[in-house]
């Protein structure tokens, strides 16, 4: 029955407003906790990224060092072969290989030094981030404790209100409930408002007298042409407020 649906919408609104009041008593704490959690996750991701990059530099540095050692062994072996050459052609060929190996050693050691330098630079960043992480964790724990204390005060009332709200919401058709929630989100929590002294209780714009008559019939959902909220007759709102 439409009449009952409109009453239920306004009852739902009264419970949502009471829940909003309880939420407001928590102040900025919920938002602060959410923001700290977001910062924590971002910092953890950054730390993980830096650590992976450090690991990559360490692995590449170690490989470059191994390559340099291998080239050095090759160069030493070739130098021994110089004593066994029988002509200038062999001597020149071995000498060329030695020079190439020594150039490779220099290059590989330079690469190792570069990766070592980058790894140390990143390690400094990592240490700073880890220190910041501990500070952030401490602040988050403190704020969560504060929020828990504040929430504890109204825990029973909040549970009761949510329980009553759920009972009412189950009686409202899904499409109507979706419309209500959409308006409530867009209008700072107020989706259903009564007419007060001939004006919308949400935006205070005067409504046509004939609309007042239609609202009293309570047989159709009417939307304020100015603010888009659902309108109900003042008398019906007063009746609901007596029992809510």
Which keywords apply here?
mainly alpha, Helix Hairpins, 2 domains, four-stranded mixed β-sheet, 7 helices, rod-shaped
Descriptive notes:
This protein is mainly alpha-helical and 244 residues long. The chain folds into 2 domains: 2-25 and 156-243, Helix Hairpins (Orthogonal Bundle); 29-153, Helix Hairpins (Orthogonal Bundle), CATH 1.10.287. Helices cover 77% and strands 5% of the residues. It contains 7 helices and 4 strands. A 4-stranded mixed sheet has the order 2-1-4-3. A hairpin with a 6-residue loop joins strand 3 (222-223) and strand 4. Helix 1 packs antiparallel against helix 4 (155-169) and helix 2 (29-81) runs antiparallel to helix 3 (88-153). The model has no long low-confidence stretch (mean pLDDT 91).
CATH class of the largest domain: Mainly Alpha
Report the end-to-end length measured between terminal Cα atoms: 20 Å
Poorly predicted sequence stretches spanning 5 or more consecutive residues: none
What is the helix/strand order?
Answer: HHHHHEEHEEH
Total individual domains = 2
Quickly give the CATH architecture of the largest domain: Orthogonal Bundle
CATH topology of the largest domain: Helix Hairpins
What is the overall shape? rod-shaped
| Class computed from helices, strands and strand pairing | mainly alpha
Figure out the total of helices. 7
Q: What percent of residues are in strands?
A: under 5%
> Over all CA atoms, what is the radius of gyration?
37 Å
**Range of helix content:** over 70%
How many strands? 4
In the sheet with the most strands, the strands line up as: 2-1-4-3
Please describe the biggest sheet, giving its number of strands, its sense, and whether it closes into a barrel. 4 strands, mixed
State mean pLDDT (0 to 100 scale).
91
């Amino acid at each position: 029955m439409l009449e009952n649906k409109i009453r239920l919408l306004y009852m739902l609104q009264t419970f949502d407003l009471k829940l909003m009041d309880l939420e407001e008593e928590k102040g900025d704490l919920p938002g602060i906790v959410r923001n700290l959690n977001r910062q924590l996750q971002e910092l953890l991701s950054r730390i993980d990224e830096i650590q992976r990059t450090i690991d990559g530099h360490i692995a590449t540095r170690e490989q470059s060092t191994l390559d340099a050692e291998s080239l050095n062994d090759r160069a030493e072996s070739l130098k021994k072969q110089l004593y066994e050459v029988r002509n200038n052609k062999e001597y020149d060929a071995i000498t060329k290989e030695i020079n190439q190996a020594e150039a490779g050693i220099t290059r590989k050691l330079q690469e190792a030094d570069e990766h070592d330098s980058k790894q140390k630079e990143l390690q400094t960043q990592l240490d700073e981030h880890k220190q910041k992480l501990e500070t952030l964790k401490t602040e988050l724990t403190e704020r969560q404790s504060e929020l828990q204390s504040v929430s504890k005060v109204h825990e029973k009332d909040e549970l009761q209100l949510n329980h009553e709200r759920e009972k009412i919401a189950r009686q409202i058709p899904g499409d109507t409930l979706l419309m209500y929630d959409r308006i409530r989100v867009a209008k700072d929590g107020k989706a259903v408002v009564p007419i007060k002294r001939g004006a919308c209780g949400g935006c205070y714009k005067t409504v046509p007298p004939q609309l007042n008559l239609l609202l009293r019939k309570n047989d159709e959902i009417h939307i304020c042409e100015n603010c888009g909220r659902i309108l109900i007759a003042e008398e019906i709102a007063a009746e609901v407020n007596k029992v809510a």
